[in-house]
Q: What sequence folds into this?
């Protein structure tokens, strides 16, 4: 069974810059893993280490029971799909898809069977005699996937494959990817900075920041139970509203407002009396009315719902998402509250000795 | 009843739809190269006979042959039967050319230009005649081979395309059948050691 085990993986570049810190992950057979995080968080570096395109500074990589830490890429039996497609412009789509097998000197009939089968899956049969420049971005990306499929690898690696496509095409390609994964039942590692892709595609998400894994879990877990302030603000669109404050006498107090805690919250936060904490609430979990006054600055009607932007205490920007068509205008004032079941509390972020901010852990 | 070889034949023919006839194309281009070698030597002769208005016609004919051969090489590459006939005509003309300038030069002992350090005397004119003849024959041979291979492949392609378009042949069904057979073979091979173990035990 092609499982991937990544143990204590580190990447330190020649200049001493560390891009990945102690990355641990066990990927099950047929699992769709998405690495998500902002630019420079180390997700592509991790993927490239798995592919063999970057040396592993420390740690172990086991693919299908075989230690591949020092193996060259060609011996790892993996296929990678890049953001820029990496197709050969002078070759036809057929030749592009057959290329890796032609290099392996497979017989022509076998190559043809595999290419045709992949073209059938990806709906590329009518494009096989064309050159890449004659295809749209989405079709080119499908060709790049086809080139990976014909190899029948143990693991598929995707490095931001949809980033070059427009929003509409990205949506349709996402659906195609899900179907493709179901058809092939392949083990996939997928890198993206787009949280929508991560949430819709993944069996499990690995959320990374500054080279560190912040949380590994099901998409719903990352959304509903973020492990720290970074995951809470990174996953979800619009991002979670965060308020710095402290717990005092059974209330969350910040400079802008006071928010009474219910019994469950008091129980959870009993050890934090007098300490700094961060209250987080997603825009869709903001209710009306409530104890907090919001001065509206902008009202975005999106059809099914409305994004209401405003300021609390004249400084703190807050976004609310109401499941109705709202007609607020700038300058209006409303009173908002937070759904107590969906309100999150985190420890206050701290800085390490190098001045880097360490996200505050969730309090549960 | 269709057997496995039928499916293999289908695959072999279906490949033609996505692979160009590069062999025929390469042979046609090689014929063109031999033609170039021929005229590079021919136009080096400075005798009065060669330096007349007729050499102009010869140059035009050579240019036409070069262009037509190149065009035909692209045609046969794409399984176009018409161009195979064009190649045959050019091949015949190449043979016919032996009896033009080269033969005249031999008869009048005019083929005496220096060629890669070899400076023949008028009596040694036959040497360069042989070289010119070899170039023309080689060119004609390559063009004939290109035409024959091109015609055979074009015929196969045409027949297969008709059958595929009419639905008489289903390529994907053939691929699926071969995949299923291969899978069954693999499973059989995997089961074999277990059975053997059973016998031993």
A:
């Amino acid at each position: 069974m092609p499982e991937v085990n990544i143990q204590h993986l580190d990447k330190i570049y020649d200049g001493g810059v560390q891009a990945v810190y102690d990355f641990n992950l066990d990927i099950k057979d047929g699992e769709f893993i998405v690495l998500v995080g902002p630019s420079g968080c180390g997700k592509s570096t991790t993927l490239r280490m798995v592919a063999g395109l970057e040396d592993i500074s420390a740690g172990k990589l086991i693919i299908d029971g075989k230690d591949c830490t020092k193996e060259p890429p060609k011996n790892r039996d993996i296929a990678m799909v890049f953001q820029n497609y990496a197709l050969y412009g002078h070759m036809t789509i057929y030749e592009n898809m057959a290329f890796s097998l032609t290099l392996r000197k497979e017989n022509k009939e076998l190559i043809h069977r595999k290419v045709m089968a992949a073209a059938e899956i990806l709906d590329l049969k009518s494009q096989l005699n064309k050159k890449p420049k004659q295809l749209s971005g989405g079709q080119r990306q499908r060709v790049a996937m086809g080139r990976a499929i014909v190899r029948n690898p143990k693991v598929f690696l995707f490095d931001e494959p949809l980033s070059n496509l427009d929003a509409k095409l990205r949506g349709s390609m996402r659906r195609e990817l899900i179907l493709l994964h179901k058809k092939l039942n392949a083990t996939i590692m997928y890198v993206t900075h787009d949280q929508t892709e991560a949430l819709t595609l993944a069996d499990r998400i690995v959320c990374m920041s500054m080279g560190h894994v912040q949380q590994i879990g099901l998409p719903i877990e990352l959304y509903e139970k973020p492990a720290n302030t970074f995951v809470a603000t990174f996953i979800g669109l619009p991002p979670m509203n965060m308020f710095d404050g402290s717990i005092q006498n059974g209330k969350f107090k910040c400079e802008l407002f006071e928010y009474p805690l219910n019994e469950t919250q008091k129980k959870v936060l009993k050890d934090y009396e007098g300490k700094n904490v961060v209250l987080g609430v997603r825009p869709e979990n903001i209710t009306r009315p409530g104890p907090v006054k919001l001065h509206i600055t902008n009202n975005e009607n999106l059809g099914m719902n409305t994004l209401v932007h405003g300021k609390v205490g004249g400084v703190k920007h807050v976004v609310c998402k109401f499941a109705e068509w709202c007609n607020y205008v700038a300058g209006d004032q409303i009173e908002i509250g937070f759904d107590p079941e969906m309100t999150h509390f985190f420890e206050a972020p701290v800085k390490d000795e190098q001045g880097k901010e360490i996200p505050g852990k969730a309090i549960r | 009843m269709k057997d496995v070889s039928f499916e293999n034949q289908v695959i072999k023919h279906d490949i033609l739809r996505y692979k160009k006839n590069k062999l025929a194309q390469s042979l046609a281009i090689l014929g063109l190269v031999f033609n170039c070698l021929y005229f590079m030597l021919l136009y080096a002769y400075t005798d009065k006979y060669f330096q007349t208005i007729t050499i102009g016609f010869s140059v035009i004919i050579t240019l036409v042959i070069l262009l037509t051969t190149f065009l035909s090489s692209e045609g046969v590459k794409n399984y176009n039967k018409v161009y195979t006939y064009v190649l045959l005509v050019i091949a015949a003309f190449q043979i016919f050319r032996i009896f033009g300038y080269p033969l005249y030069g031999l008869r009048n002992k005019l083929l005496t230009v220096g060629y890669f350090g070899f400076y023949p005397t008028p009596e040694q004119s036959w040497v360069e005649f042989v070289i010119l003849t070899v170039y023309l024959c080689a060119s004609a041979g390559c063009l004939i081979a290109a035409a024959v291979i091109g015609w055979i492949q074009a015929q196969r392609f045409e027949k297969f395309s008709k059958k595929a378009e009419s639905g008489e042949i289903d390529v994907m069904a053939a691929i699926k059948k071969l995949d299923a057979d291969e899978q069954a073979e693999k499973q059989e091979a995997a089961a074999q050691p277990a059975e053997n173990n059973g016998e031993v035990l």
About this structure: The interface with chain A takes residues 8, 11-12, 14-15, 17-19, 171-172, 175, 178-179 of chain B (CB under 8 Å).
